[in-house]
Target: Cyclic pyranopterin monophosphate synthase
Amino acid sequence: MEFTHFNEAGRGRMVDVSEKNVTERVAVAKGAIRMQKETLQKIIDGQMKKGDVLGVAQIAGIMGVKHTAELIPMCHNIFISGSDIAFGIDQEHSRILIEATVKNTGQTGVEMEALTAVSIAALTIYDMCKAIDRGMTIEKIFLAQKSGGKSGIFINQNESL
Model:
């Protein structure tokens, strides 16, 4: 396996995708944010002073998808055909599970966009709750699956929440 983001001089470059086939591509990333039980309950009950934590985190995650190429230096600026963020409440482990799905039809995939969505959603939850719980931890952000492109389908069987 060779690294493709380096030119002949060993310096970073954006990979030329012009010869790649246009295919439908989908990526799903997951992650979690752990917090105190009281913090999680306030989110569930809608009692956070800054407002609807998960509603704001969802919009922030989608905005993160749209700005990924501005944040990751060698990431292509691509057309996104769809993105969604889903949240799950894990009361047993006092955490919120985050899942982002991103789709496009193009010459390069959307894995970085999905990972960015989860990261930004988790950071937004942290920001909205930090006044009462600075000890929150963002955990285990990973690519769960992807499809499309030359490499086809990938399902990450090494990670789970």
About this structure: The radius of gyration is 17 Å.
